[in-house]
Amino acid sequence: MRTRDMLMHGSTGFVQGTRPADDQANPLPVARVSSESMTRYALYFTPVDDSPWAQAGSSWLGRHPASPEPVPQVNVPGIPRLLLSSLTADARRYGFHATLKAPFRLFEGFNEEHLLQMARAFCSAQKAIVLDEVRVRPLMDFLALQVNGPLDEIGGLAMRCVTYFDLLRAPLTEPELAKRRRAGLNARQSALLQRWGYPYTEEFYRFHMTLTDALMHADADVIFTVRKAAEQHFAAAIAAAPLTIDALTIAREEYPGAPFVEWQRIPFSGLSERATMPHSGRIFFCVGPSGVGKDSLLNWVREHSAGDEKLVFAQRTITRATQANEAHEAVDTASFWRLAAGGQFAMVWQANDLCYGVRRGIEADLKAGRDVVVNGSRAYVPQLLQAFPDAIVIWIEANEDLLRERLEARQREQGPALLKRLKRAKEFAPSEQAQVIRLDNSGALEVGGQKLLNILRERK
């Protein structure tokens, strides 16, 4: 079950029906949940800028993919310019491209940086594909550049793209689903629409670079003339260089109806013989009782691992005010549960009358091959290992006398509250599972910090 589904089904480590009451006396800032972005992103193949293919495609459609502004469109003898512009209007809006993953909005909790990180990781594992026998051909009721192969490699790339990035895709709205279904989908295509947000994936995927809009209402002579003109127009590019899928382009549609404009073009750089999915990162879930020095250890390691782009320290969302030693996201209780209900968290737990969450952005970090360090809770470990079976639990310990000394020095609790903290420290025993690593932090900070840093550096 996907993490956002687990959250909605109660498999998140918190007890249903036991939410603490809102703190009306001293409310924390209310978290702002952004409204659904209107920007859509599409994952394309586009030829490199200065290639004969890019030049031919831009002049045929009348727009360069990297700009929303029109460029002079090719002249087709016998076809008025206005008519040719009309017959290519929708194709021009999308730009000269082949779709690898259809347009989508980002799911709440993900941003462009997550998309870019994942795209870079994806491209680092892909190999260029040289296309065979590129020709102008009819596809359904429009004209497109199509190829004869290698179909398995092309389809494999497209499906890797569809599945890998689907984490980031916001579900289609009901009006969007209804619009797609009105196109006359069969049962299988409807299922693919529901699963991937687009019906023409898997066995229905056809690599193509669209050259016209639907021509069903055009005169037969016009269709013939346009097709012959397209064949002649692209003949020079076909003769000059093979068409090669060698990069992934991220295109953006800023608002409904706007042109899709190339935002990033990331070359493939896979070194293995076969293209594959990028390696995922792992979660390092650090737990331990109050007074064990967990926050100090994590701060020491964060300072001494600065510059390691493959290591991320997750920010927590907590229903308490910020503290000097941790820059967490502070929200009130009502806002926390609204975020949870909206699928914003990859992890949720409760401890010491507070609610803790880790936002779903860490899932994109993991997909991009980055390791994620989480300041966690011992009580949440069973749920963690269900949701993230490859996670590593770092169980931080210290001797009992030192725990008491450190808790007393903090001066947060006294009397019964202090005794409650000490009692809770004994309630959880570390599991003997292989993925649970015990770390003794009874000594100096730099000693424990180096131990933790070594565990993280030996992670691969």
UniProtKB/TrEMBL annotation:
EC number: 2.7.4.23
Keyword field: ATP-binding, Nucleotide-binding, Transferase
Binding site for ATP: G288, P289, S290, G291, V292, G293, K294, D295
Matches recorded under InterPro entries: DUF1045, GK/Ca_channel_bsu, P-loop_NTPase, PhnN
Catalysed reactions listed for this entry: alpha-D-ribose 1,5-bisphosphate + ATP = 5-phospho-alpha-D-ribose 1-diphosphate + ADP
Domain Guanylate kinase/L-type calcium channel beta subunit: 280-460
Protein's pathway: Metabolic intermediate biosynthesis; 5-phospho-alpha-D-ribose 1-diphosphate biosynthesis; 5-phospho-alpha-D-ribose 1-diphosphate from D-ribose 5-phosphate (route II): step 3/3
Pfam families, A to Z: DUF1045
Region (Disordered): 1-26
Family: Belongs to the ribose 1,5-bisphosphokinase family.
Role played: Catalyzes the phosphorylation of ribose 1,5-bisphosphate to 5-phospho-D-ribosyl alpha-1-diphosphate (PRPP).
UniProt xrefs under HAMAP family: PhnN
Protein name: Ribose 1,5-bisphosphate phosphokinase PhnN
